[in-house]
Amino acid sequence: MKTDTVTKDFISCADIFADVFNYYVYGGRQVISPEQLKERDPVELALPYGADGAMVPVQRYRDVEKLYTARTDGKVEYVLFGVENQAEIHYAMPVKNNLYDALKYAGQVEAAARSHRKAMRSGEGKKPDAGEFLGGFWKEDRLIPSVTLTIYFGCEDWDGPLSLLDMMEAPDQEILSCMDNYHVNLIAPALMPDDEIMKFRTDLREVMFFIKYSKDKEKLDEILKIHKDR
Question: Is 158 in a helix, a strand, or coil?
């Protein structure tokens, strides 16, 4: 079985997936439960901004994606969580992940537009103003946040770029002030102190230790022995 298939199946487990984002988003606090996660199709097929509004075929495969549903103060909130598993360092990761998130938002805009067009054809819903009609996205419409996280399953230090600007020759400050800098959310065990790895609550903890100390068997045995009951 290929490494990417193994890591995808592992991270797809709801308890592991929840553990990943409880660590990265909440510092290890148990906020997200597996029951609040719903599997999503990780394939993005189209970007709805071609000439004359035509759909432009764009296909991208996120490794794992789940929809998180939470109730806060009586309101239902949604977040799209996605994971990219990397066995090797990807030196264009900021662009890759930025595209995934952009496609998610573009897809939501198109879904809203389809819903509004259907409602208008049936004589339901409000009458949009000119801007809403042209864009297909109503003033009160809202997007679901998309968070993409990269997990590096290699034992080397990640030396790839962690932001879009890291991939560019440094422009002057006036140009920088006009740019949004996309950052990579990264979990890389070689860069993590042991006390950070201990914040994981599932088998992911042992996996992270194994990767981090894969070149030092004595240290790995020592670490696993110390932490086996914690």
Answer: coil
Three-class SS of residue 84? strand
Give the DSSP letter of residue 174: H
**Domain count for the chain:** 1
Residues with Cβ within 8 Å of 214's Cβ and at least 6 positions away in sequence, in order, are 155, 220
CA distances from 205 to 53, 136, 175 (A): 47, 45, 42
Nearest to 32 by CA among 50, 20, 42, 18: 18
Tens-binned pLDDT, residue by residue, of the chain (230 aa):
466 788 999 999 999 999 999 999 999 999 999 999 999 876 654 555 555 555 555 556 788 999 999 987 778 999 999 999 999 999 999 999 999 999 899 889 989 999 999 999 988 878 899 999 988 999 999 999 999 999 999 999 999 999 999 999 877 888 888 889 999 999 999 999 999 999 999 999 999 999 999 988 888 888 877 776 66
The structure tokens listed for 169 are 């020759």
Q: What is the CB neighbour count within 10 angstroms for residue 179?
A: 11
Best CA proximity match to 48, nearest among 40, 38, 34, 58:
58
Q: Cα angle at 50 between 126 and 182, to 5 degrees? A: 90
Range of the structural domain that residue 113 is part of: 3-227
From the number of C-beta atoms within 10 Å of its C-beta (0-12, 13-18, 19+), residue 115 rates as middle
